[in-house]
Amino acid sequence: MEVFVKKILLFVCLLALCNLTLFAQSKRSPQIVRIPEKSAIHVPPQQAPAGLKKIYSNLGTQTDLYDDGSGWVLEGPGDNGFSTFGAIPFTPKSNSHVSQVGAAVHYFTGDNQVNLSIYSDANGAPGTLLAGPVTVTNLPESGTCCTLAVANFAPLAVIGGTQYWVVVDTPLTGTGSDFDGEWDMVAATVPIAFNDNGLGWYVYTANDLPAGAVLGTIP
User: What span, in angstroms and rounded, lies between the C-alpha atoms of 90 and 74?
Assistant: First the structure.
């Protein structure tokens, strides 16, 4: 099995959202994994369904959507007993309906699947589940570009100017819980959120943002 060197990213801002009964357990700083590009040929991403418009996106060009050599580590608890889930915020410019989310999630080992969901915001971190989870399988291999993990939702009404979150996680047990992979990134300085070992969401300000897009209809 290929060995991946995980580098600790020095964090700037930490917002703890832990239940008091879980304080005895420990969190760790989010981790970045860097791997060599496995193919110089970049495959175009999946085509969005006709009629859907961009509500949010930090993706690059069709042939270079994200950095396929660096990503934030994602782990299900069945991998090594410790879980790390990720989330990115988005704010619609106007009232809209979200129908699809794409995330640059790549696969290392374990079950080749993750869950994508949409959450409300709670004081700057993911709050209440609004849509999902949607299980996405057959994720692309790490070190490749530019396929996305795509989840389709029943149209979810979102309010312009209100922050929401795209969450990538795994089941806590059973199939999918041993997923080990990464969420590839783009260069940006914004808040991102992580949930380590089920201790609650906490926020970092980072220079590398997990790459993704939110599509839907805009009246």
Answer: 20
